[in-house]
Fold this sequence. Notes:
By secondary structure, the protein is mainly α. Helix content is 77%, strand content 0%. α3 (41-53) packs antiparallel against α4, α4 crosses α7 (153-183) and α5 (111-126) packs antiparallel against α6. The longest helix is centred in the last third of the chain and has 31 residues, at 153-183. It starts with a helix and ends with a helix.
Amino acid sequence: MGTVDDLHEAERHLTRRVASCRHPLVRWGRPVVGEAAEHTKLWWAVALALAAAGGTRGRSAATAGLTAMGLAELLSNAVIKPLWRRRRPPRELIPHDGVDGRPDSPSFPSGHTAAAVAFTTAVALTWPRAGALCAVPAALVAAERVHSGAHYPSDVAAGAAVGAAAAYTARRLPRLSRYVRQRR
Length: 184
């Protein structure tokens, strides 16, 4: 039992450390990244840019990214969160005012991170160079979720795993659909 308590305390400590970062870029960037990630606005904008400027490859990458993102959101927000029901980090771990306005929904897994990783992974599998560019804002979204006090680091890690699994699954959907039709 001590090991579980030790892990929980280590995560609380890590959450406090990340949320305590007071670098000027973090203070300026956290609200910007948080707002861009709200309601997946950032990823819809990237998908639009990919589709408009990337030709056939860009449209394929945008479609793959949005499909994976939708699947990740469904899995994280409609399936896992209601089953897990983990509370968000307590206010005393977050030494800034960014914790005000957090959602009341369960903390585990991070849906924002799941969406970011799903979109980025699916784009990278379709167009690696564009996916590499998407990795930077995806990492910023994941860090922002801990810094803002919305999530513990394990929530973000689980969200990343859900996102990667959703991208992999979304990539396999057309093949699965053909397989099911052939078996009829």
